[in-house]
Design a protein that fits this description.
The chain is mainly α. It is built from 24 helices and two strands. About 0% of the residues have low confidence.
Length: about 550
Amino acid sequence: MSFKSLFQKEDYCAIWIGVILLSTALLLFSLNKPKDWDKLKDLDEQISTENNTNFKTTFWYQLIDEQKSIAGSKTKIGKQLKQLTAKPSKWKTNPLDAFYVSASKAQEISDASKEKLLAATNKTTVAYELAREKEQKANAALYQDAMLNQEATTAIASWRSATKELQAVEKKIKTKASNHFPSLLLLFFMLLLLFGLGKQAMGTPILKFALSFAAIFGLAIVAYLLGGQQTIKAYGLGYAFWAILIGLLISNTLGTPAWLKPALSTEFYIKTALVLLGAEVLIGKVAAIGLPGVFVAWVVTPIVLLSTFWFGQKVLKIGSKTLNMTISADMSVCGVSAAVATAAACKAKKEELTLAIGLSMIFTSIMMIVMPMFIKAVGMPEVLGGAWIGGTVDATGAVVAAGAFLGDRALNVAATIKMIQNILIGIISFGVALYFSKKEDDTTNANWKEIFKHFPKFILGFITVSIVFSILYEILGDAKGYALIDQGVIGNFSKNIRGWCFCLAFVSIGLSINFKSLKEYLKEGKPLLLYLCGQAFNLALTLLMAYIMFYLVFPEITEKI
């Protein structure tokens, strides 16, 4: 691998962009620490001392509130970065409200909220007094009376609920006039520069990329706008749904124009977003998800691969072993990447690879929409749904899209399991090369260089970022780590950028799928039947393994996710 390739390969460019964004944000927040920063250590010690094993006291919550008030999000730079990267706001009847709030409108919202302030304040005061009363009774009984402990817990929960209502009212009272258009323009140019330079390094002229990216970014704004409408949002139809749907409508009606294609870089956006995600998924969480995730990915995948290959050869009697193996790897590991790697390893024909990829594209586009809908309809737990998606949906981008439909917990679990599964690409391609080369008495394909060649390099970026931020968290401590990283770098910057990257990727996914062009791949009976049967087995086995690992063997891990 040459030094030049570190700037010309998509995976490495995604890592560079992620590192640049995170490093810049970390530097800015480190130079602009929140007010009362030095007080956090004392607060942390008080919280530890006040940690009641029976229930969290009112004083504990007050300390937590004070601790959370010392945050990067409260600093000037924090507010500026949040405004720069924010998505369009919620709106009810007028879409313009998502971008612009006039001075008169802001005053109207503030005045309306002031009328609710007295009632919310009184409710909170009464709830607090009751919580203190119940808490003192439990304390007088030395916390040995289970009934008094439960009454105190219930009263404190009511007080916390009333406090949140009061905070929401106070936030609306502080509503000010705002104009989101300039920040959207700045964000557009920032992302254009970063992704444009990356595409330039990979061979696409930045000027050619710019026009296409402008259109993709505009469609992403529309997706966020539709997802932010209150009624639509109440039905759970978020930006991911609209981004994919808008793209599908264009590609399957008007057709995706050629000038749009330079910025249709689904994997580039997804990989960058996953590198950014590394800052949010600390190494302890990766290890936690990894333990049951390894069983979901590394046990199920080889079983499905071998079973599907055997089924194709012995039951369906598919004439081409290389076609059989390519489809089996495509469906069981992670779609196109696995298909390309496996096809190279077993020397499959170009037509066989095209057929495998076509089948994968069809069922990936269906599964990433149908699975989240099914998971929500049956009330499946979010972690289980995320694990199921991560282990079965083929492409990383589609996994992220499907996980985003369910929520952040599902997204984190799905993405982590998919990355654990992606590690198998090189290993399986090595095994396949070894199997086929032995039959041909040729071992040139079977080497460790082949494994690294097909290994998804962006995972190294995800892991490195996760390790670095985990170390920073340990050095700073929980309180300062939360203030600077959670409520600064992540909460006010990288999480928002990650959302935009995902939205750009989802628009690209929709624009890249044309169902008419995929029809020909459904004509071949045996390959289609192989994929259907293999994926059905994969879905059943993955769901069973995910349930066993996350809810029977490692339930304590699931609770912490």
